[in-house]
Specification:
This protein has 16 helices and no strands. The chain has helices at residues 20-34, 40-49, 51-58, 64-84, 94-110, 118-133, 136-162, 168-178, 181-185, 188-192, 198-201, 204-224, 226-232, 239-246, 251-277, 282-304. It is mainly α. InterPro entries: Isoprenoid_synthase_dom_sf (IPR008949), Terpene_cyclase-like_2 (IPR034686). Its EC number is 4.2.3.-.
């Protein structure tokens, strides 16, 4: 009997930024000029992924500069993932992915990349753009999130090299970082034109809400992309496979359990956002609103994009 991937839904919706098409044109031009899509298959992947539409869904009220930055960062992440992570040999080699991330961090922090290093050069360009839009506190949060993302890629590569699936609690903790969601949440203020001080950013409710959103997005991705990962990835490391292995479940049972876990995690988000909405702090209220856009907008984009269809380029 064929496995049925659950159709997901969230209890609130989102809009689409009116400048999304402008962001699409600009993002495709930027990726081409940086050399990220010089190979036809990478250009096709970018078109299928539609990163500007993701940016328009998750930040429907962003400033134009913020929208363009968000779309470019999403494009970089998706193309980097395709080139170096799940579907590549490097993605199963911890030493190789460590070497890659070391020179990428250098490009991010210094704004300079070596000759012929297209991903480093594109990251250096993004570094300069972000520095022009944000302050040192927001910049530090972003670089910390990117560093943790790169570290999590080494963890993923180690799991693949050893042919092992992580225990469920470890997978959940590390998936928050390997999905790069924290890097995107660290850009929310810059993209949307406001600022939280450190006291607000590190408020326990803000951290709990952000962790819940990261889980919701990553688990949703694991479910929606399940068929695509089965067909294209050499070693699938996802919530359904970890659940199936740890609890001796069938594929269908694991996918259904994932959907239940996702619904409960949305409930956790509701609990975490209540004190933010009741705080009277305009920044916290805005941040909670933008977190909701990320939950709903990411899921809407997941069903719009061709990235997670088996037939996608």
């Amino acid at each position: 009997m064929p496995v049925v991937v659950p159709r997901l839904a969230v209890p609130f919706g989102t809009d689409l930024h009116p400048a999304t098409d402008t962001a699409r044109v600009e993002t495709e031009r930027w990726a081409r000029d940086c050399g990220l899509t010089v190979r036809p298959e990478l250009h096709a992947r970018l078109l299928a992924t539609a990163p500007a539409r993701l940016a328009g869904r998750v930040a429907p009220h962003a400033t134009l500069d913020g929208l363009l930055l968000s779309a470019a960062w999403a494009a970089w992440l998706f193309l980097f993932d395709d080139e170096y992570c799940d579907e590549s040999e490097i993605g199963s080699d911890p030493a190789a992915i460590t070497e890659v991330t070391v020179w990428l961090l250098s490009a991010l922090e210094t704004g300079e990349a070596g000759p012929g290093d297209v991903f480093g050069a594109a990251l250096a360009d993004l570094s300069g753009r972000l520095r022009g839009l944000t302050g040192p506190v927001q910049w530090a949060r972003f670089t910390q999130a990117v560093t943790t993302y790169f570290y999590a890629l080494v963890w993923e590569a180690t799991c693949r090299q050893h042919g092992t699936l992580a225990p469920l609690d470890e997978y959940i903790r590390m998936r928050r970082h390997s999905g790069a969601v924290a890097t995107c949440l660290a850009l929310i203020e810059t993209v949307n034109g406001f600022e939280l001080d450190d006291r607000a950013w590190y408020d326990p409710s803000v951290r709990a809400a952000s962790d819940a959103v990261a889980d919701i997005i990553c688990w949703s991705n694991d479910i929606v992309s399940y068929r695509k990962e089965e067909h294209q990835a050499a070693d699938v490391l996802s919530l359904p496979t970890v659940l199936a292995h740890q609890h001796n479940m069938s594929e269908q049972q694991a996918l259904d359990r994932c959907a239940v876990m996702l619904e409960r995690r949305i409930g956790d988000y509701y609990a975490a956002e209540r004190p933010l909405l009741a705080s009277g702090n305009p920044g916290l209220i805005r941040f909670a609103s933008d977190l909701r856009h990320w939950i709903a907008g990411n899921l809407e984009w997941s069903y719009e994009t061709r990235r997670y269809r088996v037939s996608a380029p």
